[in-house]
Protein: Biliverdin-producing heme oxygenase
Organism: Sinosporangium siamense
Amino acid sequence: MTDSPFSETLRNATWGDHSEAEAGIYLKELMAGRLSPEVYGEMIAQHYFAYVALDGAGRALADDPVAAPFVLPEIFREEALVRDLTTVYGPSWRDRITPSKSTLTLVARLNQMADWPGGYVAHHYTRYLGDMSGGQFIRMELQKIYGYQRGGGVDFYYFDIGSLPRFKQEYRGKLDAMPIGDDEKQRIIRETRLAYQLNTEVLTDLGRALRTETAA
Ligand code: HEM
């Protein structure tokens, strides 16, 4: 391992995977304003299943010394995602949504993380720091496109934690302070790359569904 802080090593080692995650057709079409609210809702629905699993693993690890600093019930996403799904699909949203195959794969991996604190951190970082970073740009675009206000539609991009830049700086400090050795750090880097891949596959599936719709 280099002498760089772990947060920096992790970011550098996975930034290539990030480029792939943001490059897919679904996000491109979404950002261009070419998708109906219902098709945007498909992404929220997949996030719903993933976050319920991720935060479920967090609950199981709340007393673990490695995971505990990252288990923050005040930012758990389920309630915000339910508000968003209710806004897009109405009160019977639950009957409208199904996990895609790639979401089921991601959820299965997330469930396994309840037994591996370092792996939980890898997935937590990939989703939460992503939604707090590029996600903020995506939220602003979505608000322009669909006119959503706070209260439902894009609530899962809102975090009640005060200053986001300060939170992210503290988050990186927690990554740097993790009480683990170099081998575990390497495993976490590998798991973060997998997390990117699994999340990217969810977006790829959503993109594939778009092509099917266009072809139909
Ligand atoms: C349109 C799509 C996206 C854009 C424009 C975007 C953009 C960005 C930008 C500009 C940053 C750096 C922010 C900063 O340094 O404070 C960032 C960070 C990040 N993004 Fe994305 N992103 C996108 C999609 C994604 C996706 C799909 C994921 C994960 C599945 C993701 C995960 C992350 C993570 C984990 C970070 C934090 C990296 C770090 O600083 O350690 N992003 N994103």
